[in-house]
Amino acid sequence: MDTDLYFFNLLEGCDLIIVCGLYKTGTSLVANHIENQMGYNNPAKQSNPSERGYSRNGNRYFTNECKRLREINKDIIASGKPNSQNIKDYIKSIEFPSVIKDPLFCYTLKYWLNEIDKLNLKHLIIFTTRDQKETMTSWDASPYTKNLLLSQRFETLCTSFNQQLAYCKKNNSPHYRIRFEDIDNHFTHLL
What we know:
This protein is an alpha/beta fold. It has helices at residues 3-11, 27-38, 44-47, 67-79, 84-93, 105-118, 132-141, 143-150, 153-170, 183-187; strands at residues 16-21, 52-54, 60-62, 98-101, 123-129, 175-179.
């Protein structure tokens, strides 16, 4: 099957699309395409209206994660366990269809999927990847990710990302893996 057709068949009719990837691997770019070209709600727009980034062609796009979602993920990481009610309340509070993204999903995605399955929402996880050398170079250029790089967090995040991907495969969660350099091409058919 044609890769683009397969991708769009996965996207069709989803209530919720979750974008999971390391920092600087295209999570914002994918979420932006889904929001702007497919009309999905992006809850981050309501909580962080001012932060923007640049795509490779120089166009500005929305980049930040939803503050409330980020806080839920930080709480999960700090406590080592999810607060299922917080996850459910967040999901129930957003307008569907929605796209959500947060690099912290590399640590917490499986907890979100447990609650999404209980709510019986049609969903898709899009995993973004990028060449390791390019990712590290990009991390080095940004103050926040440079600090992560200096604190040896890159390998930990890579391991956690791979664990979330393996979890999706094991549990037959609908997912799609997209390389950074292919993101724009995947969405050009929607223009």
